[in-house]
Structure formats: C-alpha cells, structure tokens
C-alpha cells in the first residue's frame, strides 16, 4: 500500500502553492518512484491523523481553524510522524511548539492583531512574491538534504517569527537551521524526530520538481510506511466520488 499523507490546509485555487500540489505528487511518482496516497484535510476538519505516514501543513493562512493546524503539528511531533510545514505551516508549527512544549501563551498577529508581543508578527517588508537566499547551518537536516550551505528560495508570505521567544524555543530543543542574509529565521527542525522540518519559504513554488525538501519528506513517509502499517484511516470513508467526509479530499 502507498504511504498515506495528510495535506492539511484549506484548499483554494487562489493559493498558487495549492495548485502545484498535483504536479508535485506526479513528479514524486514519476521521477522518484514515491507514490503517495495524499488527502486534503481542511483545518476545521482535522481529526485523528495518527494513521498517516506523513503530515504536510500547507500555506494559505489565515486558516479556517488555527487550532486545527496546531493539532496537526502536535500529532506529528508527539507520534514521530514525518512533518513538513511550509509558510503558514512553519508559523503554526512554531506556535504549537511554543504553547505545548514551552508553555508559552503566544499568538499569531494575523489571527490576533491586537496581541502586544506575538510569536508570529507581521514582517516589516512583505515577502509575498519574493525570492531570497537562505543560509543553512552546516550538518543540519536541511543542509544535508539540499546538499549546500546556501539556497535561493521563493516566498509568498507577510508574517514570520519575531525574536522575543526564539531563545526559549531553542532552550526547549527546537533548532533554527536556516536564516536569511539579515539573520532572520527561515527554517526550523527538531533533532531526535524522524523528520520534522518547517520552512517559511515555499518549496512548492520551486522550478525544480520535486524540491529536495519535499522529496526527503516523501521518502521519510515511505520509510515509516515500510516499518509499520496501522489500520487504514480512510478505507471506510472512501467512495466513488471525490468527497471523503471528515477525512478529507483525495488529492
């Protein structure tokens, strides 16, 4: 059976990265031999994701449910399920870690614009539509996957982590392994987890398909599927039509 991937996000044709997901899945299958059984799950319909071999929290905020995205990140972190978070997925993975591991009461400025000191703040200069260099920490998971200490990536976001809480997150085990030329945080990973990698940039937008980070995530999901196969979380929901009830929509 194919590795099962939860694509967590509120699917929309207006979000460019969403429109590229089918092309990425095709490239993984045809070029890498990684045939994923992928399901879209809206953030307000996130349930038990424990039976999936991978969780990818996609761009497209503000989400229908901030808590749904946070629950997805927590499930992947606590159950050693490969996690890829991109753009808003990166932001909400940091929120999850800050709240549930560090015990911080922190917010996202897009969802709570009146918060005095949010973890995720509006960027002084929007990165929507921008391309910029990212420097990767030598020996980090991201650097090993990319195969270089510097990469140029594409963004489409206006929010990112502020500096106020980053030392606390690091003190509790999260590692920030990618930064822009000004030193702003762009990549985070969790040592000891089989695959936990979140980026503010969007590898979905790369001309190269699949992006090395996406390929590595898919390979980690395939490894998990090969090691342990639990009950199919979607078998009872599948039908001849495209709708899959509370489980999600087949990609």
TrEMBL record:
GO molecular function, one term: ATP binding
GO CC field: cytosol
Catalytic activity, EC: 6.3.4.2
UniProt xrefs under Pfam families: GATase
Glutamine amidotransferase domain location: 24-105
NCBIfam families (alphabetical): PRK06186.1
Annotated family: Belongs to the CTP synthase family.
Stated name of the protein: CTP synthase (glutamine hydrolyzing)
Native organism: Microbispora bryophytorum
